TrEMBL record:
Signal peptide: none annotated. Keywords: ATP-binding, Endoplasmic reticulum, Glycoprotein, Hydrolase, Membrane, Nucleotide-binding, Nucleus, Signal. ATP binds at residues 109-116. The keyword Flavoprotein does not apply. GO terms for cellular component: endoplasmic reticulum lumen; nuclear envelope. It comes from Panthera pardus (Leopard). It catalyses: ATP + H2O = ADP + phosphate + H(+). The gene is TOR1B. InterPro entries: P-loop_NTPase (IPR027417), TOR1A_C (IPR049337), Torsin (IPR010448), Torsin_1/2 (IPR017378). It comes from the Eukaryota. This is Torsin. Belongs to the ClpA/ClpB family. Torsin subfamily.
Amino acid sequence: MPRAAGLGRAAALGPLLAAHVVAAIEPISVGIALGAASALTGYLSYTDLYCRFAECCREEQRLNASALKLELEEKLFGQHLATEVILKALTGFKNNKNPKKPLTLSLHGWAGTGKNFVSQIVAENLHSKGLKSNFVHLFVSTLHFPHEQHIKLYQDQLQGWIRGNVSACASSVFIFDEMDKLHPGVIDAIKPFLDYYEQVDGVSYRKAIFMFLSNAGGDLITKTALDFWRAGRKREDIQLKDLEPVLSVGVFNNKHSGLWRSGLIDRNLIDYFIPFLPLEYRHVKMCVRAEMRARGSAVDEDIVTRVAEEMTFFPKGEKIYSDKGCKTVQSRLDFH
């Protein structure tokens, strides 16, 4: 279920979980490799040797905060708040050997502002295989929870999936995309796992990380950004305190947020509501340059300008913010 590219329907959760557990058991090929390696290298602990050939859950592995900071600063454009909050939240959480609850982050903003990109960066910095890791689980609301009449089924399956995977790896990461399209009530199934419990049915969830990605609240974020712009203030002057309280209340009261009247907000179980600001023309140009470099192409400023100018901007009068952020940069660059 949670690997969007490889898992199909939510109803298949049971067999998939079983397959996941089986896959975690040492395969014959790895066993042979271990024997050969032992003979060549001398004594190594079974765990250390096994982990040279297969992905292991390194619960005590420290976060390279410097590498994460550099990656966020170099690759995430126009999001000073997201960069600052995510870096501090992850660093503090990973440095705490005895957290009282899982780290829960809720990322909000219009499409194309970098929410999915950030979740990918975070996953890669926590588990080397990133979104392909056995310990990183991606849920897409429209794919995994499509039918409103199956909410109870989804809740049961979600609890089972999370329980099983946290039992296998305490530092598992769970990413919920398209939260604004999630039927209200589904996400409350995981409330006990996010609370301040030492264990739930014999399992501790305190070292897990949960990330929610949502377009909900984008209008509130844009309003604040626009107010700053019209007052002649820089977007970098916007602080978390200017947006987080408005976001939490707005999302709680929004029927289309996936967190509508959710116990996760009511019980203050979401640690940070992280706003992603709408992107300006200059940020779109940064995205185009980054995409050209990623393709191994020399940066051509004429093409950068043409792609940026093909985007549409709002509000109607000022035309400050890209209405799709950087979401269509890749496809538009294909035409040049």
